[in-house]
Amino acid sequence: MESILITVRTGSRPSVTDLTDEAAGFVAGKGDGLLHVFAPHATAGIAIIETGAGSDDDLLTALDDVLPTHDRWRHRHGSAGHGRDHVMPAFIAPHATLPVLGGRIALGTWQSICLVDPNGDNPTRQVRLSFLAG
């Protein structure tokens, strides 16, 4: 198995960051296998969604609807409502595994690999990309 750790600047607001190009570059020429994408953070997740047509903003809006940032959360360190950031990975898992065929990620036409980070307290994240040859 081969892996790399990439650093992603997510900024000081909730964000959805497209990692597809980095992931595609990592698996290029590697043949068939599995790409595993993992965010080693308690407040971030990996989503396979469409980007650029508003879906990324819609996802953040949906998170606010389902997990609002108010003070009902028992987990209270960090910025206001930060407890919801620790619950979010139960809804958007911190990992995804995708097939790789002929050195290319077998994504659907509109699918992208995205880091979802609702936590503005940590502007820099890491994501591990691992390739398991088939």
From TrEMBL:
SUPFAM superfamilies from the UniProt entry: YjbQ-like
Pfam short name (any one): YjbQ
Membrane-spanning parts: none
Protein family per UniProt: Belongs to the UPF0047 family.
Protein name: Secondary thiamine-phosphate synthase enzyme
